[in-house]
Amino acid sequence: GEDARIFTVPEACLSSRSLFFKKVLSGNWKEAEDRTIKLPGDDGDTLELYLCCVFGHRLPVEPDPTPAIDTGQEERLSLAKLYVFGENIQDVRVKNVCIKTFLQSNWKIRHNNIWWRPNENIVNVIYKGTEVGSPMCRLLFDILAH
C-alpha cells in the first residue's frame, strides 16, 4: 500500500530466529528467489519493534515517570501486536521478550495501591491473534484474575 515501509535486513538474522522466515527464504518460494518478503497484514511499527528486538536483544521500553497516570497502555498494545507477530512468524525468543517486557510495563502500582490492568484493546489483540492457552493468553488471564 501507500504506507508500506521497506526494511533491509540480513537474511541470517531473520532465518536464525524464525521458522517462517527460514522456510520462506530457503524453499521454492517467490520470496526465496526475489529475496523480498511482503508482510501486508502487519504494520511497519510492529516490524520496526521486532527488528529492535532482533538487533538489540531487548525492547525500547521506558519506565513510567508518572505512576499515578497509566501512560503504558499504548506500550502494552505495541507489545501485544509484537507478540502476535512473533506467534505468526514462529519466533519464540521475541515472544519471551514480549512477555517479560509486558510484565515490566504492567506491574506498576497506581497511587491507590491497585495494579494497572491491560485495556480491552490489548486483550482483544492477544485473544484474536493467538491460540487459546498460549503463554500470553495465560498471562493475561492471570493478570485480570488478580
TrEMBL record:
InterPro entries: SKP1/BTB/POZ_sf. This is BTB domain-containing protein. It comes from Didymella exigua CBS 183.55.
